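Trying the structure run again after the queue cleared.
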Amino acid sequence: MSDGSKEFLNGHQELMPEEHFRFACHPGVSCFGACCSALDLMLTPYDTLRLRHTTGQTSHKFIRLFATLLAMPEVGLPMLHMRMLADARHLCPFSREAGCAVYPDRPSACRTYPLGRATQRDAEGLAQERIFMAREAHCHGFDAGTDFNAGAWMHDQGLEPYNSANDRYMALAEDLRAFTTLTGQHMGQKQLGMAGLALYQPDEFQPFLERSGLLERLDLTPARKDEVLHDEEACLDFGYDWLELSLMGHDEHLRPKG
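Done. Tokens:
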């Protein structure tokens, strides 16, 4: 890394857009698989959706088998963490000798490594990202590999849909934190349950929407209603809009009829 980098999070250095680094991770690297154990790995709603699809699990079964449900500090939003195996190494449940068993749908934190990404919205509400380099003592991936800058690495790892979806999750958290600070209102148990349904269980949120008639009370096009009810990514996207409206009374993308 060049001298243009700055100290950032937890002693890591910020990576400027023009800076380059070399990295590779494959079975030929001596530390291959060392980073797949004893992880404090948060699963975003989009991470969970992708993992569920590749493992063929319902949301209820996936959470029971692979995740621990927690609450986001200071906000209260539901969030999942991957549950490591109860073995000596505390391996990721998808780690295999040959590599990751869910590699095409691996979580965003795994894709981003050895980089880290943090976002903060500007005055216009747009996400501004900062990238930092996580150099860990055990990792030998920097000893060889292809030359990347941050943007090229993100593209190579297929992070565009992950970053876009995850930015919505963090924006919701920021809005809810600001709303709670301003009003002193906190989510009740019913709201927490509905937030978990909308964010992490679109396969169960869809039949709820159909039974409750909620979509009929909102100003939605027939095409979007159909997407929400039959496409889980569209349902997750709707879930963010609906939570902004139902928890804080506003959303630029969604409004009640009338």
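Residues 1-8 have pLDDT under 50 and may be disordered. Worth checking whether this holds up in the mutant runs.
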